[in-house]
């Protein structure tokens, strides 16, 4: 793909923005020029159960990998009918192509267990430069690992990704998002719709992972030979350390249906906290009963927190629901400390543990109630502001991206986007690997 890609229309650039490509600047241009550029398109055919506790999800996806072969290097034996179909610009199926011909050896990086795969190959002539376009059609089904970010739980939005990479290093194969065939998702075939809501747009990210370097045990007995050829060995080591693999990550987004956790999490914690303020209505001569009620509510709140945490993985940070629950526990602790202190003051300052009306102890108790309740209100106001400014605002941005994506796809289907790209050789130039900006 030549530098004329920069002359795409504004709508085409906007559509490409949904398929971002982040490149590793450590990759030299000479390595890119020597490598085979493989265009990858991934479509999520079906998203299954999202397991938050074990940080994995089920998916059924289709991966299409395309690369170009010069006509004089295309050695596959075609029948006369297939040759005619290929000449007419139609796709032909290549039986057992991977057994005797080169292919990029694609595999899934974040697959768990036995990922089922069905692979077939096809060929088609590119009308623009008469290059042979080989396409690997791979249908995958299984479990995929995904690191879930739960800081905003239960108002979180999770990224569900599939990472495609190659057995070859980046000097042989570089994977990029297909600029002509965009990745997508089938939102209708979503099993977990009661708990999650899928967004329509898809993001792609290109990265490079370094290869781990190690020496075999047999190399330990060849120290003399190693010292003799130290210069050559160090050169080989440096070359091995620079080896990387190209990885393309295709990501869809799912928002958690948080109504259940708001009613059964936030609401119940709020009710327990509100009941703790009712203890201030107990007469001061029964301050010991206040302490008993506060301690009972404290134990109830701790037990309730353990119940909620069973549905979450063990993580090293607090979710928004955790912070709210812990704030409620601290509120009960402070109430208990105050009631115990008040009980001790009454015991010391009154002869018969009876507090007369309009005494300074009564006014002090009223003042502490106003203080605790004011802090309670201020905390909830700040929390509601944060909820709208951070997690809910992020969901709003995701919906806006969905709206933009639908508009751009509609314009593309109407044929208003010019998708003709000039080619200067058998592979796209390095400009195709640069991020596209609106």
Name the features.
438 residues, alpha+beta, seven-stranded mixed beta sheet, five-stranded antiparallel beta sheet, 12 strands, rod-shaped, disordered N terminus, disordered C terminus
Task: Please describe what this structure looks like.
By secondary structure, the chain is an alpha+beta fold. Helix content is 39%, strand content 24%. It has helices at residues 10-17, 29-34, 80-87, 97-100, 223-228, 230-241, 259-277, 287-309, 320-349, 360-389, 391-413; strands at 36-51, 56-69, 92-94, 106-108, 111-125, 132-145, 157-166, 173-177, 184-185, 196-198, 203-210, 244-256. The strands form 2 sheets. Strands 1, 2, 3, 5, 6, 8 and 9 form a 7-stranded mixed sheet that branches. Strands 4, 7, 10, 11 and 12 form a 5-stranded antiparallel sheet that branches. Helix 1 (10-17) packs across helix 11, helix 7 runs antiparallel to helix 8 (287-309) and helix 10 (360-389) packs parallel to helix 11. The model is unreliable at 1-25, 214-223, 225-229 and 416-438 (pLDDT under 50).
Summarize the structure.
This protein is of the alpha+beta class and 438 residues long. The protein has helices at 10-17, 29-34, 80-87, 97-100, 223-228, 230-241, 259-277, 287-309, 320-349, 360-389, 391-413, and strands spanning 36-51, 56-69, 92-94, 106-108, 111-125, 132-145, 157-166, 173-177, 184-185, 196-198, 203-210, 244-256.
